[in-house]
Amino acid sequence: IDLGQPYTVNLLRLQVAQYPEGATAHDVYVGSSPDTLTLVHTFDGETVDNQLLEFQPDVPLTDVQYVRVTTTKSPSWVSWREIEVIVP
In what order do the strands lie in the sheet with 11-17? Predict the structure, then answer.
């Protein structure tokens, strides 16, 4: 996701679209350019359709223009109903 300009990010919220339910792992990367993304969180566990996954860093993430979610484990095709990037 290209946010269009750099932001400070307080919360990332992902709404799962998944069938069948099961064990998944999703890596969340952020950065100021597509070439400088840093892994900031991994969601790893059982997920179901419409579930909300939230990551709130201990310290807000600064200089974030790009967000990438990479799924590394899933029993089904990967899709998201919504991805929210919450800024102050």
Answer: 52-55, 11-17, 79-86
59/57 Cα distance (integer angstroms): 5
Cα separations (Å) of 81 from 48, 52, 74, 84?
A: 12, 10, 16, 10
Q: What is the pLDDT of residues 23-82, one digit of tens each?
A: 999 999 999 999 999 999 999 999 999 999 999 999 999 999 999 999 999 999 889 999
Q: What is the pTM of this model?
A: 0.94
CA distance 41 to 44: 10
Q: List beta partners, residue 35.
A: none
Q: Are 15 and 82 in contact (CB under 8 A)?
A: yes
Q: Helix, strand, or coil here: 85?
A: strand
Residue 44: strand pairing partners: 25
Indicate the residue type of 71.
T
